[in-house]
Amino acid sequence: MTSMADLEPQHFLWTVHDGIATVRLDRPERKNPLTFESYAELRDMFRALAYADDVQVVVFAPNGGNFCSGGDVHEIIGPLVNMDMKQLLAFTRMTGDMVKAMIGCGKPIIAAVDGVCVGAGAIIAMAADLRLATPEASTAFLFTRVGLAGCDMGACAMLPRIIGQGRAAELLYTGRSMSAAEGERWGFYNALHAADQLEPQAMALAQRLAAGPTFAHGITKTQLNQEWNMGLEQAIEAEAQAQAICMQTADFERAYRAFVNHAKPVFEGD
What is the torsion angle, in degrees rounded to the nearest 10, for the CA atoms of residue 265, residue 216, residue 227 and residue 142? Predict the structure, then answer.
């Protein structure tokens, strides 16, 4: 296992406190667009998180009142026009790898969304495990508005599972913005909070998850993602094995000892 508290990324902001990592894109003057470099660095960071023992939860936070405006028009969209098919496929696979790294990092990810959350920004929010937003948040999977298909970075697989096939189809075909109220009503956002309460609420949720049982949370994340591709009988068997593994942990025994002593368990992640 490794430590990531001292990570010094070049293309986003990073802090770790009490097992909670906070990530922010760092171009607030442009509403935090992504570049080739920031995509790759985020992918590498989420891959490394799978082996980090000092981070239990990730909060992906806004910066300057906005979450992410997607790929930078000048630094990504422009150059893509002049690439050949091999280069384009390398790029689209790299962006997809970022999503796969988020799913495979083994840590719950909370997206705290304010303001603009479009394109790849909407994908980052979608790939998070839990999503909070302000009433002002505007979320759009706007790929068709730039002449591309709605099937980007796993959207056609993941978004219908969150909000339903019909609603996902509408957003992916039209590229229109989903209001925060729609997002909460449809189940994309778990809750809405005023702008001055968004990050405190996200941190409170992160602290609750970081208190554990963190090993079991990692198992839950794995099963939530792996069971998409299982039949019911396979899923029940997979959960039987996963739960048996968790029953071998010291945290399970701590919870039992605390219960019989009318105390609150203190989990240690082992």
Answer: 90
CA dist., res. 57 & res. 21, Å (int):
6
Give me the sheet containing 138-140, strands edge to edge: 116-118, 138-140, 177-179
- For the segment 142-183, what is each residue's pLDDT rounded down to a tens digit? 999 999 999 999 999 999 999 999 999 999 999 999 999 999
DSSP letter, residue 5? T
Q: Confirm whether pTM is higher than 0.90.
A: yes
Structure tokens at 75: 């630094």
How far apart CA 49 and CA 29 sit, in angstroms, is 28
Residue 255, Cβ density class (10 Å: 0-12 exposed, 13-18 middle, ≥19 buried): middle
Distances (CA, A) of 169 to 147, 184, 200: 16, 17, 33
For the domain 12-210, what is the CATH superfamily, name and number?
2-enoyl-CoA Hydratase; Chain A, domain 1 (3.90.226.10)
- Domain map of the chain by residue range? 12-210, 214-260
